[in-house]
UniProtKB/TrEMBL annotation:
PANTHER family: FLAGELLAR BIOSYNTHETIC PROTEIN FLHB
The name this protein goes by in its record: Flagellar biosynthetic protein FlhB
Family to which this protein belongs: Belongs to the type III secretion exporter family.
Stretches the record annotates as Disordered: 1-26
Keyword Protein biosynthesis: no
Classification via InterPro entries: FlhB, T3SS_substrate_exporter, T3SS_substrate_exporter_C
Basic and acidic residues bias spans: 7-26
Length: 355
């Protein structure tokens, strides 16, 4: 959302769909300080793991090049080949530290949000060149927080440097007399302590900044009551439309059920309130309910059964029990086998007498 939008009426917690849409646009909570911490930690790890070897390898390669400078090929082609060779040597020497830094940078992003691909952040938008929006970005709350964060970083790093280096101030003065090659080994312990202190302090700063970014991002996703209603209509549908769909579905289901009544073997009824149509054929494990209804629907089932010469048996207790115990297209429960068998046997005897 544009920063110029009045957000006083955005009081509702964002829905899961709203959060997912923000992530799809690339709008996620991210802290640059977390990335910076990972890069700093990656740099410290690269120096500890491969710093000395890379420096020695690079020094040997450069020394060999300088020692053989008189053999530099003549002509543009020779100079280009020499430059390419020099670049490959340099990359070979610093390849591992660069790989560690690259992985650290990726890790800084992955710990904050899942990988995603979107072009939304780089899509041109007129609001980004709006003077009023630019002034709010420069003088707004976020800019003030960034200013305070910069002061905090400067102050904390200064404190760490003072704590680590002040006890060594007398020895540090003598370092100006050392050879450049001996300078790094002489200061390695101080540099290690300094980097450890900076990383420890920066970890708290990065955690606090990420919590702030998460809070502000969540606040940006809040919704108005109207937006909540509109989203509900989009995802769940208008209540009137849903009611109409349910009505149509119930009507279609009722038509399918009534089409099964002529195929029933018997309809068991409580004279006016309950009707259960059962179908039974040889080979079936048990009689199956093909239709059932209450009141007006029960009377319609009875009328349709009589039109199609389906026997109707009045047995109020059994009709009520079957209506409650069995659903459409299901076999009757075991406890009703005996009572239903007596009804079906009675119907079959009547048919034999009729023939």
């Amino acid at each position: 959302m544009a920063e110029s939008e009045d957000r006083e009426d955005h009081t509702e917690a964002p829905s899961q769909r709203r959060l997912e849409q923000a992530a799809e646009r690339g709008d996620v909570a991210r802290s640059a300080e977390v990335n910076t911490w990972f890069v700093l930690a990656g740099g410290a790890l690269a120096l500890a793991v491969a710093g000395a070897d890379s420096a020695q390898s690079l020094a040997r390669a450069l020394g060999a090049m300088l020692a053989n400078a008189h053999r530099l090929p003549e002509g543009p082609g020779g100079l280009s080949a020499y430059g390419t060779h020099s670049m490959m040597v340099a990359l070979g020497a610093i390849g591992l530290p660069l790989a560690i830094l690259a992985l650290a940078g990726l890790a800084g992003g992955l710990v904050q949000h899942r990988p995603m691909f979107t072009t939304q952040p780089v899509t041109p938008q007129l609001s980004r060149i709006s003077p009023s929006a630019g002034l709010k970005r420069v003088f707004g709350k976020e800019a003030f927080v960034q200013f305070l964060k910069g002061l905090a970083k400067l102050g904390l790093v200064s404190v760490v440097m003072a704590v680590v280096l002040w006890p060594e101030r007398a020895r540090l003065e003598s370092l100006v007399t050392l050879d450049v090659a001996a300078l790094l080994p002489a200061t390695s312990a101080e540099l290690s302590r300094l980097m450890t202190g900076v990383l420890a302090i920066y970890a708290f700063l990065a955690a606090g900044d990420f919590a702030w970014q998460k809070w502000t991002w969540y606040g940006r996703q809040k919704m108005t009551k109207r937006e909540m209603k509109e989203e509900y209509k989009e995802t769940e549908g208008h209540p009137e439309v849903k009611a109409r769909i349910r009505k149509l579905q119930a009507r279609a289901s009722r038509r399918r059920m009534m089409a099964q009544v002529p195929k029933a073997s018997v309809v068991i009824m409580n004279p006016t309130h309950y009707a259960v149509a059962l179908q039974y054929e040889r080979g079936m494990p048990a009689p199956r309910c093909v239709a059932k209804g209450l009141d007006a629907l029960a009377l319609r089932i009875r009328a349709l059964a009589e039109e199609n010469a389906v026997p109707v048996v009045e047995n109020p207790p059994l009709a009520r029990a079957l209506y409650k115990a069995v659903d459409l297209d299901q076999d009757i429960p075991v406890e009703h086998y005996k009572a239903v068998a007596e009804v079906i046997g009675f119907v079959m005897r009547l048919r034999r007498r009729a023939t």
